[in-house]
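It is time I had a proper look at our fold encoding. Can you supply me with one protein entry, sequence and fold together? It will help me judge whether the discrete encoding reads sensibly. Leave the record below and I will have a look:
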Amino acid sequence: MKLFFKLFFGVALLATLALSQTIKVGTNATYPPFEFINEQNQITGFDIDLISEISKIAGFKFEIVNISFDALIPALKAGKIDIIASAMSATPIRAKAVDFSKPYYNTMNLFIKRADNKDLTKLEQLEGKKISVQLGTVQELAAREIKSAKVMTIDEIFGAVMAVKNSKADALIVDSSIGYGYLKQNPDLAEFLILPDGSDGFSFAFDKNKNKELQAKVDNAIDELKRNGTYDELLIKYDLK
């Protein structure tokens, strides 16, 4: 019995020590308002503020690691980061490689064209067209499902937007959460379709079956932040409500 309790408390102590270490949070800071670099050259955004509030409740320190979006899951699997916080949609395919927190934001696939393009009004008309998307996103998957579409994968969403503005692509598929922001800033662009993105929503990601305790603490913190009003305050701060 004594041996059992020694083992039990030893495991508990190790778990506590593990969570007291600095957690490395991977993100791709090119996706405003969720993660971006501000005028002070600091990485900020909704996801960053949300992780900060979660860390206060869950009891861990963290540092941000800024890498390309398509490299986030490989970095997680290699142990270079502990959490992905980068507006990542929880999809069945990704769930084979990672564990997701409970969703914290829901979005749709927004289809954008040049405002002077009167030909594009529905999905079928994208067949054979050039479509720009951010590399590694669910929008890339959606574009590749369109018959004969010429998919332009670009590292940063800004570049995908510019491809349409500069007539290098016929259309853009983007998360509605940021797509409407680009429409406000670019009157020469227009929405012509919005569809479900096939995911459960934006979630934080953890290496598969490797960090269940941290995952549970993050889930509990998300619930608490929604209860105490902090979550809604962040939505309002970043014009996401």
